[in-house]
Write a structure and sequence with these properties.
Blueprint lengths: L2 H21 L6 E9 L2 E6 L4 E17 L10 E10 L2 E9 L10 E4 L7 E11 L6 E6 L2 E6 L6 E6 L10 E5 L8 E8 L9
Parallel strand pairs: 3-12, 5-9, 5-10
Antiparallel strand pairs: 1-2, 1-11, 2-3, 3-10, 4-5, 4-7, 6-7, 7-8, 8-9, 11-12
Length: 202
């Protein structure tokens, strides 16, 4: 799979997942740990303690993430961030995904998200970055609006990394997005898997 296709799949998962949460009661992403692999089927123990069956199709994209330094986020960077509201248009990041330059503008906007209760997912362009004692503070602009984002120390900051189905092994953390069928199994559109010790923070 070409890296550009992988990136597009990842962005689609985040964008569609956020939009689904905003507009309907459809299930959001699955977060958990692979407990078993049987061919193209993953059994995932979710963070809520349930067991989910995940089916991999021919078009399922698989990716990983790698850690980067928060200092790599500059004015003009395009990011996606799950964050908590701090009032008056301010956000406190739970995690930050820095998109590659060729994906700038993908999924621009802000939607409710389910990483934590009351969290949101914002995709936007970074403006002015200011160092503060509580972590860097920056403006994030999207669709003619903006928010002030603080990234507290210790917040995961990642970008995409290559992975494939051979990385889908028992014990690995995963972030899965896809529709649930009548039998309860999830038809995965995209899977982000733990690799080199880095778990998907989304």
């Amino acid at each position: 799979m070409r890296l550009g296709t992988l990136f597009a799949g990842a962005a689609l998962a985040l964008v569609v997942g956020g939009a689904a949460l905003a507009q309907t009661a459809r299930p959001g992403p699955i977060r958990g740990t692979i407990s078993a692999v049987d061919g193209s089927t993953l059994i995932v123990k979710t963070r809520e303690g349930a067991t989910a069956k995940v089916e991999l199709g021919d078009k399922t994209a698989v990716s990983a993430v790698r850690n980067i330094d928060v200092g790599e986020i500059k004015a003009g960077s395009y990011i996606g961030t799950a964050a908590m509201p701090e009032g008056a248009g301010k956000l406190s990041a739970l995690e930050v995904l820095v998109f590659p330059p060729q994906m700038k503008g993908v999924g621009e906007g802000q939607n409710p998200y389910n990483l934590k209760p009351k969290s949101s997912m914002t995709n936007g362009t970074v403006g002015k970055v200011t160092a503060t004692g509580g972590g860097p503070e920056m403006t994030v602009s999207y669709k003619g609006q903006s928010a002030t984002l603080t990234i507290p120390p210790g917040t995961p900051v990642v970008t995409f990394a290559k992975a494939d189905r051979s990385d889908l092994k028992p014990g690995k953390a995963v972030f899965v997005f896809g529709p649930k069928g009548a039998d309860g199994a999830v038809a995965a559109r995209f899977v982000t898997v733990e690799k080199d010790g880095v778990k998907p923070p989304m």
